[in-house]
């Protein structure tokens, strides 16, 4: 099926699904190269959310009337769509959170406080997004005797597997939490290898799929990963909804994080008992409309085919490697063998913010700064940040060529 | 095309020769030995930094120097600050910072003085909302230094 769709992958047609791509910025066609921060939305997602609000909105799980039943069904159908998207064994393994950050905080609190023991530590890498760093720092600093250690990143921007092996060796690591694809270096980490090594050392594994899940198919059962997180808004869905996958047995053993309505079994004034997963971790009214939007986004990328999207993006990455390395004075961060459509770089003599302002005048949106990965920039000696161009399924080679041309112009302007 | 061309003119207004010369000039760069007041301003989002050190004699700022890293706007603004606050009282220096902040927000200034003319090169940031923090970072560091606070942030 993927092969068939891949053959018909038509970026011009796909772009027509994204209303914003036909708008102009300062009189110039929009060239949106910041999908790594948040992706644009296809009209299918926008329409599904509008339709849900116009025709099928009510609170879920609590109304004994038709409309609430319809909304509940839509909400749970979204869970099913996520389950199939990740190939989770059952829908109960899918927990809706506010975003990927919410998923990490949930695991840090519930699994971290509830199941890690004093003397154990969490192992993250130097290339983590702050969402997969700060919650673990807070856990470390909570006075529970839980440590935090860091796996090194090589000069080429890849996870140092020798260092991972060395740090797993003493058997104190309770959880390895690592990105599946760096939001700065574009490096795709060898997830299966990491998981095998960690499991052999008795550690659980959480993967940050915020970038990876957008660019390639993910199979949590094949990976045998314990927790997997991603966010809706980078997958062409709405903001305000993220996903935590967790193995059922783990979720059942974990204490709740937020307390409140919908996550309980019985409540007296004195005490409560808690519902099973996923309800246990979804206190309060959930992001109902956003779940519908995420469902539509998953249907959208599935209709194109994750294989086709990956193939298109591989073509873009190869093209970007060629044209960006030809830009005089440009140095790319990282040179991982397996990389996705994320390119952070330094342009000699031009500060990232000045560069971003310059490119903006040509309608080009890039990210300037440290991309919520401050330690990684320190690791590469770029305390002042970098400029990042990141691609989506609607990105074209012409846009990458235009970026390269404007980078050359910018260097001349600021010379 | 005309809208695009106007965009480019604004860019040239923003990165005026005066601003770019200021950003690149080494004058007033460095750190005073034993300053009477000093503070660091950080923009945590982009990593820009201005380390400001001042000497005061009574109610007059006699010396001002800065070191830092960052975009041309943040560094030019810091250079301009160190040039203009010399010989001023803390209150006068703070007032200049407030003028920069008002200009950056696009507010009109009624008073005219040689300092305000000079500061006006920063006023173009009002057309670039995402760059206002760059222009005001050094002035926040000035406020912090004069208040005896060692660190401040643009956030």
UniProtKB/TrEMBL annotation, chain A:
Presence of the UniProt keyword Transferase in the record: yes
Enzyme class: transferase
Origin: domain of life: Bacteria
Cofactor(s) this protein requires: pyridoxal 5'-phosphate
Location of the Aminotransferase class V domain: 31-403
GO molecular function, one term: cysteine desulfurase activity
CDD domains for this protein: SufS_like
Catalytic activity: (sulfur carrier)-H + L-cysteine = (sulfur carrier)-SH + L-alanine
Keywords carried by this UniProt record: Pyridoxal phosphate, Transferase
EC id: 2.8.1.7
Homology family: Belongs to the class-V pyridoxal-phosphate-dependent aminotransferase family. Csd subfamily.
Purpose of the protein: Catalyzes the removal of elemental sulfur and selenium atoms from L-cysteine, L-cystine, L-selenocysteine, and L-selenocystine to produce L-alanine.
Record-given protein name: Cysteine desulfurase
Annotated source species: Sediminicoccus rosea
From TrEMBL, chain B:
InterPro entries: NIF_FeS_clus_asmbl_NifU_N
NIF system FeS cluster assembly NifU N-terminal domain: residues covered: 15-96
Superkingdom as given in the UniProt entry: Bacteria
NCBIfam families with a match to the protein in the record: SUF_scaf_2
Protein name: SUF system NifU family Fe-S cluster assembly protein
């Amino acid at each position: 099926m993927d092969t068939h769709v891949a053959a018909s992958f038509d970026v011009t047609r796909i772009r027509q699904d994204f209303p914003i791509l036909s708008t102009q910025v300062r009189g110039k066609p929009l060239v949106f190269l910041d999908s790594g921060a948040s992706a644009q939305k296809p009209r299918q997602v926008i329409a599904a959310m509008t339709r849900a609000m116009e025709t099928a909105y009510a609170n879920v799980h609590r109304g004994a009337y038709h409309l609430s039943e319809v909304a509940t069904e839509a909400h749970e159908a979204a869970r099913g769509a996520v389950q199939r998207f990740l190939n989770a064994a059952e829908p109960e393994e899918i927990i809706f959170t506010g975003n990927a950050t919410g998923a990490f905080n949930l695991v840090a609190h519930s699994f971290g406080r509830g199941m890690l023991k004093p003397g154990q530590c969490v192992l993250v890498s130097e290339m983590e997004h702050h969402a997969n760093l700060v919650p673990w720092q807070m856990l470390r600093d909570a006075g529970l005797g839980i440590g935090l250690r860091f796996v090194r990143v090589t000069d080429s921007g890849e996870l140092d597997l020798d260092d991972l092996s060395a740090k797993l060796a003493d058997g104190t690591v309770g959880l390895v939490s690592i990105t599946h694809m760096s939001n700065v270096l574009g490096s795709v980490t060898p997830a299966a290898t990491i998981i095998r090594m960690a499991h052999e050392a008795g550690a659980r594994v959480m993967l940050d799929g915020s970038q990876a899940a957008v660019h390639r198919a993910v199979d949590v059962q094949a990976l045998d990963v314990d927790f997997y997180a991603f966010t809706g808004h980078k997958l062409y869905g709405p903001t305000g909804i993220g996903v935590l996958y967790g193995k059922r047995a783990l979720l059942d053993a974990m204490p709740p994080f937020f307390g409140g309505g919908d996550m309980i079994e019985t409540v007296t004034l004195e005490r409560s008992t808690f519902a099973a997963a996923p309800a246990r971790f979804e206190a309060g009214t959930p992001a109902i409309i956003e779940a519908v939007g995420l469902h539509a986004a998953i249907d959208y990328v599935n209709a194109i085919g994750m294989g086709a999207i990956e193939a298109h993006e591989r073509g873009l990455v190869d093209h970007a490697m060629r044209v960006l390395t030809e830009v005089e004075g440009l140095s790319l961060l990282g040179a991982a063998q397996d990389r996705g459509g994320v390119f952070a770089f330094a342009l000699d003599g031009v500060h990232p913010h000045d560069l971003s302002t310059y490119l903006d005048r040509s309608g080009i949106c890039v990210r300037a700064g440290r991309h919520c990965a401050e330690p990684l920039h320190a690791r590469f000696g770029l305390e002042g940040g970098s400029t990042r161009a990141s691609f989506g399924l609607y990105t074209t080679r012409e846009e990458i060529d235009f970026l390269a041309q404007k980078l050359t112009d910018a260097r001349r302007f600021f010379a | 095309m005309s809208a695009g061309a106007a965009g480019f003119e604004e860019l040239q207004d923003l990165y005026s020769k005066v601003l770019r010369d200021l950003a690149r000039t080494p004058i007033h760069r460095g750190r005073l030995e034993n300053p009477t007041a000093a503070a660091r301003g950080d923009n945590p989002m982009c990593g820009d930094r201005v380390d400001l050190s001042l000497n005061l004699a009574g109610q007059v700022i006699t010396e001002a120097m800065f070191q830092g890293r960052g975009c041309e706007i943040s560094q030019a603004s810091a250079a301009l600050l160190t040039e203009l606050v010399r010989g001023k009282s803390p209150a006068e220096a703070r007032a200049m910072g407030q003028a920069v902040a008002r200009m950056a927000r696009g507010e009109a200034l009624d008073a005219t003085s040689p300092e305000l003319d000079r500061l006006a090169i920063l006023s173009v940031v009002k057309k670039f909302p995402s760059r206002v923090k760059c222009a005001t970072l050094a002035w926040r560091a000035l406020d912090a230094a004069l208040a005896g606070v060692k660190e401040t942030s643009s956030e």
